[in-house]
Structure formats: C-alpha cells, structure tokens
Amino acid sequence: MSGSLNDQATERLGGKERSTQAVIAHEWLVNWGGSESVLQSLKKVLPNADIHTLVYQPDGRTARAFSEARVLPSVLNRLPLAARLYPYALPFMPWLWLRKDIGEPDLIVSSSHAFSKTARAPGAFHLCYCHTPPRYLWDLSDEYTPGLFGRLTHGVRKRLRTADLQSAHLVDHFVANSKFVADRILRTYDRTAEVLYPPVDTDKFTPATRQRVHFLAGGRLVRYKRIDYAIRAANALTVPLVVFGDGPDRRRLESLAGPTVHFTGAVDHPTLVSLIRSAWAFLYPGIEDFGILPVEVQAAGTPVIARGAGGALESVQHKNTGLLYDASPRDPTSQIKALSSAMLESMSRTWSPAACRDHAQQFSRPHFEREVRELLKRLGFELANGDSCG
Predict the structure, then answer these.
(1) What is the pLDDT of residues 150-164, one digit of tens each?
(2) Count of domains observed in the chain
(3) How far is 137 from 130, CA to CA, in rounded Å?
(4) Are residues 144 and 216 in the same domain?
(5) Gap between the Cα atoms of 199 and 184, Å rounded
(6) How far apart, in whole angstroms, are the C-alpha atoms of residue 9 and residue 311?
C-alpha cells in the first residue's frame, strides 16, 4: 500500500485530526479463551467501540467480561442452538462478515483467527490483531481434516483459502501475537506484521512457598497439544504427573496413563494456582502460536519444560525460567525421550521463582494495553473522550 500508515489514517479522518469512531470485530463470543482475553483489553483501550461478532451466546465468564459492552451479533445468532452449531457455519462466515453492517467507522480493529478480518466499511482503516491464520485451512489442514473427511471437504477448504487470502487484502496493518505467527502471516498472506504479545493476567498468578511434588500438564485436552507425550514420559520415569482440564482427547489420554498419572478434570482458579505452585515444572510438549498458560505458570514462580518450537521460544527463557528441548518433529519416540531427559534435568536444577515471575511480567495486561495505545497513536488516531490513546 502506498504512503505511510500515518498518512493512510489521516486520509480516512478527512485530512485533519478529529475524534476517531472505532468498532471491534471479533469472530464469535461463546466460550472464554485467549482471543476473548485480547478482546477484553481491546475494549478497555477502546471503551466507546461497539463489538461486532457473528454469534453472541456467552458462557458465564465471557458474559461477565462484556456485560457493559454493546455487542452486535449477525443473523447467525438467531438460529436455534447457535452456540453449538456455529462451527458448521464456517463455509458461510466470509459471506456473513461481508454482509454485516458495521456502520461507518474510521477505524476497524479485528481480533481474528478466522474471518473477522473480512469486516469492512467505506473508508475505514483496518487494523487486524491476528491470533493466527486459520490453521485448519493452511499448515495444519491435513491434521484437522484427515482421511475421507479431508477428501470430502477439499473443495470447501479450497474456496475458504481463497476467501481468507481475499480478506487479508482488506487489512491495512497486521499485528501478530508472536514472531511465530508473524512468520506464518508472511508465508500465508505475503504481508508483514509487527508483534504485540497477548495480555496475561499475571497478577492472578503469584509465587508461594510450597513443596514440589509432581509435574503438571493440561489445559484444553486436544490432540495437537501432545499431552500424550507428557503422559508417556511420566510413565517411563514413573514420576507423578497431574493433568488438569478437559476436552475431546481426554478419554484417549486416560487410556495411556500409568499409575503415577492423575486427571483432575476442569479446575477452578484457586485449584489451578495451587497445582502450579506445587509442581516441579509445567510440561508443554505441543507447538502453540504463543501460549498463555506457560506465562501464567512462570508468573506463579514455576518453570516450564517446552518443546523448542513455536511460541515457547518467545515465552520461555532457556535455563532461566525453564528448559527448551529439541527433538525430531515427526518422531514421537524422539519427542518423548527428549522430554523425559528435560524432566530429569529440571529436577536437578535450582529454579528461581522470582526470575520466573520477572520474566512473565513483560506479558502483563497493562503492558499489552499500553502497547496498543502507543500503536494507535503512532498510526495517527485521535480517540474520543473516554477512550484511551495516550
């Protein structure tokens, strides 16, 4: 795009400084997760902005977080059982965003891991906070849609990839949640992105003196997180491992567990903090775009053992706040062996809870919100009274 980003913003403001009218586009508001945490901070920076989304059927935590926001869902929200069935509307989501009336803002800020970056308005400057290009369409397409299902959906996925590339052209400025995702944006969309790490509520995770009695793994129990590697490593070492959380992979994971592995199911916040404080280390054998859990764990003073790939390379300091191990990406035996070795090494080291927490603080929510304000200011946007951009 020609001209500086500041010039582009000024053109959209009619060539003069005036209060910016902004809207936020978010995929859907159903269950709380990392993208909803980002949205919460975006809304704090832009308190006067309406939130446009496809589905608004919030769980308890999501409803509380946005109870005072003006949330405007699409026609998809009117369908019976929308909260359960919205994933099946994926093939129609680009069209739904193109058809959605978001008014006439000067600024669109999209929080996108699917198609909310398709939101558009005449003359608006579009800033996209990209959690990731859709993994199920690009680099993890075969893993998400294997075998016969993959062959049956090939045509749909091809059309969605085309729509995703077209939506990227509607974005004036990309922001990625990690260098790992910035690289994926470059490879997928041929667009550069600056990096703003997502907000973590580090104040809710604090160190405390506890006896360390187990390793810890968990979160949402889905296959790509490779918690099965953590279980197999604990089995091989016959060391205690606690797996918290729930998800579609839980039954398979339980079938792999030896006598030293314990599943808690979903846990409340105080229980999670207690589990973290009493862990030798948190095991993180999957590849994530960034990964908020490892930062929360470090904020509570516990080291992280992670595969040396993806967002962990940016969130964990090797031999200071945890261990990063290398292994053949296509060889499960190599992965389990490398993880086992790192677990043994971690138990022989003395870790500093203060060092772990100090490192985690750079990912705090106030830090993220300050960086967003500075970015908007740099792009030339003057926000209305009550908005925070200075």
Answers:
(1) 566 667 878 999 999
(2) 2
(3) 15
(4) no
(5) 20
(6) 31
Distance (Å, whole) CA 57 – CA 62: 9
Q: Report the C-alpha gap between 329 and 337 in whole angstroms.
A: 12
pLDDT surpasses 70 at 386: no
Q: Is 308 helix (H, G, I), strand (E, B) or coil?
A: coil
Using the structure block, give the residue that is written with the tokens 């292994």.
327
Tell me the two tokens of residue 184: 């994926």
Position 79: which residue type? L
Same domain, 50 and 184: yes
Same domain, 261 and 178: no
Residue 364: pLDDT over 90: yes
Question: Which band of pLDDT confidence, cut at 50, 70 and 90, is reported for residue 145?
Answer: low
Residue/partner pairs of 132-138 with CB below 8 Å, 24 or more apart? 132/177, 132/181, 132/184, 132/289, 133/164, 133/181, 133/184, 133/185, 133/188, 133/189, 134/160, 134/164, 137/161, 137/164, 138/184, 138/188
> The domain that contains 195 carries what CATH number?
3.40.50.2000
Over residues 255-287, the pLDDT tens digits come to: 999 999 999 999 999 999 999 999 999 999 998
Check whether residue 213 and residue 189 sit in a common domain. no
261 phi, psi to nearest 5 deg: -105, 130
Contact (CB, 8 A) for 49 and 26: no
> What is the spatial distance between Cα 289 and Cα 287, in angstroms, rounded to a whole number?
7
Go through the chain and tell me how many residues it has: 390
Q: What is the pTM of this model?
A: 0.85
Band (291; pLDDT cuts 50, 70, 90): confident
pLDDT grade for 33, boundaries at 50, 70 and 90: confident
Q: Show the domain range for 21.
A: 5-199+364-383
CB under 8 Å to 3, separation ≥6 — which residues? 11
Q: Is residue 322 part of a domain?
A: yes
Tens of pLDDT, residues 34-57: 899 999 999 999 999 999 999 999
Decide if 390 is inside a domain: no
Band (pLDDT 50/70/90 cuts) for residue 325 is: very high
